[in-house]
Design goal:
Elements lengths: L5 E11 L4 E11 L5 H13 L5 E3 L11 E4 L5 E7 L4 H10 E10 L1 H15 L5 E7 H8 L5 E9 L2 E6 L2 E11 L7
Parallel strand pairs: 1-8, 5-6, 6-7
Antiparallel strand pairs: 1-2, 3-4, 4-5, 7-10, 8-9, 9-10
Helix pairs in contact: 1-4
């Protein structure tokens, strides 16, 4: 018998000083049985960093044809494709062909990220629509510790700094860029 996804609810308050966006979202995240809390929370962070009215979670791990998070136009075209982790060049190339803009949020231990980046950097340089952002392993691990079936989270985004409050817990995460997109779409 196949295992079912675990359902998480997140009441999210976003104060994005970079985009002057101040909004609340009530989100439902389905965590695939093989997905870790860290990966699920990175999907949530990708949503927060790109929050928009039509932004929604894709099937991610359950489908090769959908991103972790995406924004579609009213006519169904993919405007923004968001993935988390260390995907292959082929997946990112395919995403670039299907979307106006692609953002990849890389996270995890340096011992995993460095070899992946060294192997893929030259290939990724050819993808003009691709932007790659990095969250260090300690930060993504601390974010994973906030995972609960019912979450209330406040995010403040200011430059490359992300401040997160969850009850008595406060986190400060810094995001850095590995690759900027050559197009300035999203």
């Amino acid at each position: 018998m196949a295992l079912k996804a675990s359902i998480f609810k997140a009441a999210v308050n976003i104060s994005d000083l970079n985009r002057e966006l101040y909004q609340d979202f009530n989100l439902t995240l389905a965590r695939h049985p093989s997905e870790t809390d860290e990966r699920m929370m990175m999907r949530l962070l990708a949503f927060v960093l790109n929050a928009a009215e039509r932004l929604e979670f894709g099937r991610g791990l359950s489908s090769d044809d959908e991103p972790d998070v995406w924004l579609k136009s009213l006519s169904g075209e993919i405007e923004l494709w968001l993935d988390v982790g260390l995907p292959s060049y082929e997946r990112c190339r395919k995403a670039s062909g299907q979307s106006q803009s692609v953002k990849l949020y890389v996270y995890g231990a340096e011992k995993n990220v460095k070899p992946w980046w060294k192997k893929t950097e030259a290939d990724f340089a050819r993808l003009k629509k691709l932007q790659i952002l990095k969250i260090c392993g300690d930060d993504s691990s601390a974010l994973a510790d906030l995972a609960q079936v019912n979450m209330q989270l406040q995010f403040t985004l200011d430059g490359d700094d992300i401040y997160i409050n969850a009850g008595d817990v406060s986190l400060h995460i810094t995001i850095s860029s590995l690759k900027d997109a050559d197009n300035r779409g999203w």
